Amino acid sequence: MTDTTNTTNTTNTTDTTDTTDTTTGTAEAAEPGGGTRDADSRTPSRRSLIGWGGAGLALGAAAAGGAVAMARSGDDAEPTAAAAGAAVAFHGTNQAGIATPVQDRLHFAAFDVKTTDRAAFVQLLKDWTEAARRMAGGRAVGEGAYGGLAEAPPDDTGEALGLKPSRLTLTIGFGPSLFGKFDLADERPEALVELPKFAGDNLDRNRSGGDLCVQACADDPQVAVHAIRNLARIGFGKVVIRWSQLGFGKTSSTTPEAQTPRNLMGFKDGTRNIAGTETDRLKKFVWVEEKDGPAWMVGGSYLVARRIRMNIETWDRTSLQEQEDIFGRDKGEGAPVGKAKERDKPFLKAMKPDAHVRLAHPDTNAGATLLRRGYSFTDGTDGLGRLDAGLFFLAYQRDVRKGFIPVQRSLAADALNEYIQHVGSAVFAVPPGVRDKDDWWGRALFSTDSKDSKGLKDPKDSKDPKSSANSKEA
Amino acid sequence: MRAVRLSAVTAAATAAALAAVTGCTEKSDAAGDDHVVKVTATDSKCEVSKTEFPSGHIQIDVENKGSKVTEVYLLFPDDRIVTERENIGPGTSQKVTAEVKAGEYRIACKPGMKGKGIRQDVTATGTGKVAKRDPRLDSAVAAYREYAQEQADETVPKAKVFAQAVKDGDIEAAKKTYADSRIGWERTEPVAESFGDIDPKVDLREDGLEEGQDLEKDWTGWHRLERSLWKDKKLTARDTELADQLITDLTDWQKRVGKAEITPTSMANGAKELLDEVATGKVTGEEERYSHTDLVDFKANVEGAEKSYELLKSVASENDAALTKELDTQFAALNTLLDKYREDTSSYEFTSYDKVGKADRKELSDAVNALAEPLSKLAAAVVK
User: Fold this and answer.
1) Using the 8-state DSSP alphabet, how is residue B232 labeled?
2) Furthest-apart CA pair in chain B: how many Å?
3) A52: Cβ–Cβ under 8 A, 6 or more apart, which residues?
4) Nearest beta carbon to residue A152 from set B330, B370, B379
5) pLDDT, tens digit, 9 for 90 and up, residues B279-320
6) Runs of H (alpha helix) within chain B
7) Looking at beta carbons, which pairs linking B83-88 to residues 24 or more positions away fall under 8 Å?
8) Residue pair A287/A280 in contact by the 8 Å Cβ criterion
9) B369–A236: do the CB atoms touch at under 8 Å?
10) Which among B67, B69, B133 is positioned nearest to B106, based on CA atoms?
11) How many CB atoms lie within 10 A of CB A119?
12) Which of A119, A359, B96, B157 is most buried, judged by most C-beta within 10 A?
């Protein structure tokens, strides 16, 4: 719920194409305009055809015999990626799901690691990567959801059969507590700090923290839930779900040309958010650079997740004037105080000193800028006749100490605090992207780790993750 | 268990259906000599007139020439009973009939009605498709059947002690013997559940009742008595009836274990089902809602699952060594965790489950998931 400003974005394409993410149709499509999931695991992976380029790969996919989400003869316009239920490229220099145009639905899960066997954990990361790669391409995990041995449960849980890839992205993050395990202490990035206690925090530890997280975003909620469910299942015995959150109705757009979405308070949110096409701002505020270190994080980012409960019943009884004063924008158009249009540059001094936009603005916070990807949530009721609803805030940044922390400290004075409460919190180091079919989530962390070279003192040591005999555990 | 109460009609039908698939012993005219096997039983011998007969109708004519009362059994290779006749006195003869498919069988005499009996392999010939059998799996099934029988044999006397305490109106003694009387049942619950009609009589929970069912009339078994002892805190004439009924039903179970349909797959999936029982009933504290002895049931479920696994392990590890390694690890982890809840690992005195907090319950639940997930793959590793 912060507001960022930059030069107005003038991109008008719906399909974002840059070096991080590519949207195409699927090679497995049975009909033009997007594919559907099949359970046949023996289909060659279309992902392997995808390099880091954009336009070229539709041709690659077409050459492989698959239909792609391109204009059919007689169609004037190409369907948008979302409408086509297309796939988002899983491979890239950065993980998909950050600069990717925000999808409609979220299933976010935080996990705790149970195994003490480093090799088993590395194998899990490889297994997860493979499953994620398949699901992002709209395919079932393992041997599929049916047709296997009658005596065995199927590998895939099956509820996404026949559904399109739905722009599913799966993004992994490593929490501070992970670095207390597997001898990773020396690899912990300085920027991965535990968040301090902020004014008004009322955190439930059962909705906070986690050694790992996976953010699943898709246009179809069933696709997102299927993804988390199958990863959790693969993880049994090694990791356990600590908490999870469903989200809907993206509250922050990373596609400025589209209609700015509204949060549950009814206000447009994310007017000046960093767009997926703003390479310069992404570079400046989101992606970790070599000079930031550590080396394994280059191309990665830091994620802050906050479950923000809204007292929507009291908010809804608040006068329009007060609501607009609190935000610093008008409710209908979303224009900043004293301006006519949503995208007009805000004049902060015209706003009340405790207005949300004014306090969150980069100009108030030494330029601190976040890429927000939050979602609304409604998790039933609270037993007191009120909706348990709010904003599941997700923000990506290059350094938490220069991003979320200063902004949230300024928001101590926010007039909005009367209507919201932060009840869950977590922070994660989000490693760089999976480059190709041989790469896996966190490879750089687990391979550059100096413990591996120390481990060579052990004559039995090998890098074969399948031999768990050489666990690095004390 | 979580079953719902079967109506009397359904239960009866189930029982009838079960009776129909096993042997029957009514008199019948032998359909020609080649369908008759003569068995001459003595105190040390069990002679058969032929070791091959055509599949279909078969008649076994037993003559007991020994000095002891004997029994005769026709068995599948995994020791499941096709048909049997007990109490054949010295000098008497009996006829037993059955319908058999083509395949390998055994005829066994049990002089003195004890032990495994004197056995003789026989073959039913015919065109029926005979599945190839792995003798190691047959012996695993036979060993598991023996285990299931032992559990039933040990449970009945323990249950009688519990029932007697109830009938004596001794609440404290009944409470002390309650959980212990359930262990054998919990270890082999999938076998008992396969009979359909016994489980709802002895192990139905209060939430298994529906609107219109009577707490007094329609609910029997351990948990009904659990409620009397821990919640109502008084024993009435009805509880005496319930105690007698429990013994009747458990004796029925004890008699039927030998005929239970057990296969390598059902053993493997039975192990998984025991973990399901833990996950849906014990971890939540729903099973023993008044006595809070859930961890005793929990441990017994795990022991039963582990027994199945140990018997299938040699075959499973040939097909999937990584799986059996994982199962070894997770069984050990869960057992270690359970041991935190008892002072003495040789006793079944576990912490009362109402004293186990939310975080600890999650830890138990996570350990159950960690074991149950690979356990669900055991059947496939056995039949590959």
Assistant:
1) I
2) 70
3) A19, A91, A92, A93
4) B379
5) 989 999 999 999 999 999 999 999 999 999 999 999 999 999
6) 8-21, 135-167, 171-187, 189-193, 199-202, 222-226, 237-256, 264-277, 294-319, 321-339, 358-375, 378-383
7) B83/B22, B83/B23, B83/B24, B83/B25, B84/B23, B84/B258, B85/B25, B86/B113, B87/B113, B88/B41, B88/B62, B88/B64
8) no
9) yes
10) B133
11) 22
12) A359
pLDDT of residue A37: 62
pLDDT tens readout for residues B45-88: 999 999 999 988 888 999 999 999 999 999 988 888 888 888 89
Give which of B367, B278, B246, B301 is closest to A237, Cα–Cα: B367
Residue located via tokens 């076994």: B60
In eight-state DSSP terms, residue A152 is S
For residue A58, the tally of other CB atoms under 10 A from its CB is: 18
Beta strands at B118-125 and B52-54: parallel, antiparallel or unpaired: parallel
Tell whether the model's pLDDT for residue B169 goes beyond 70.
yes
Chain B interface with A: residues with Cβ < 8 Å: 265, 268-269, 322, 326, 329-330, 366, 369-374, 376-377, 379-380, 382-384
Residue B368 predicted with pLDDT over 90: yes
Phi, psi of A9 (to 5 degrees): -85, 135
Q: What is the mean pLDDT of residues A251-256?
A: 72
| Structure token pair of residue A155 | 């590998």
Q: Give A 450-469 residues with CB within 8 A of chain B.
A: 466
Nearest to A372 by CA among A396, A351, A354, A355: A396
Sign of torsion, CA A112 A117 A123 A126? positive
Please state at what angle helix B294-319 crosses helix B321-339, rounded to 10 degrees.
Answer: 160
Tell me if residue B189 falls in helix, strand or coil: helix
Sign of CA dihedral B296, B302, B306, B307: positive
Q: Do A237 and B330 touch (CB under 8 A)?
A: yes
Q: Tell me, what DSSP letter sits at residue B22? A: S
Whole-angstrom distance, CA of residue A382 vs CA of residue B29? 74
Taking an 8 Å cut-off on Cβ atoms, the answer to whether B369 and A240 are in contact is yes
With contacts defined as CB-CB under 8 Å, which chain B residues touch A236? 369-370, 372-374
Which residue, A127, A92, A115, A292, is CA-closest to A214? A127
A409: Cβ–Cβ under 8 A, 6 or more apart, which residues?
A198
**Inter-chain touch B326–A237, beta carbons under 8 Å:** yes
Residue A172 amino acid letter: I
Q: Tell me if chain B has a CB within 8 Å of the CB of A236.
A: yes
The answer to whether B376 contacts A153, with C-beta atoms less than 8 Å apart, is yes
Neighbouring C-beta atoms of residue A17, cutoff 10 Å: 16
**Chain-chain contact of B370 with A236 (C-beta, under 8 angstroms):** yes
Cβ atoms of B37 and B48 closer than 8 Å: yes
pLDDT (tens digit, 9 = 90+) per residue, A406-421?
999 999 999 999 999 9
Q: Which amino acid is at B245?
A: Q
The strand pair at A23-24 and B103-109 is best described as unpaired
Which of chain A's residues have a Cβ under 8 Å away from the Cβ of B326?
237
Q: What is the pLDDT of residue B128?
A: 62
Judged by a CB distance cut-off of 8 A, whether residue A435 touches chain B is no
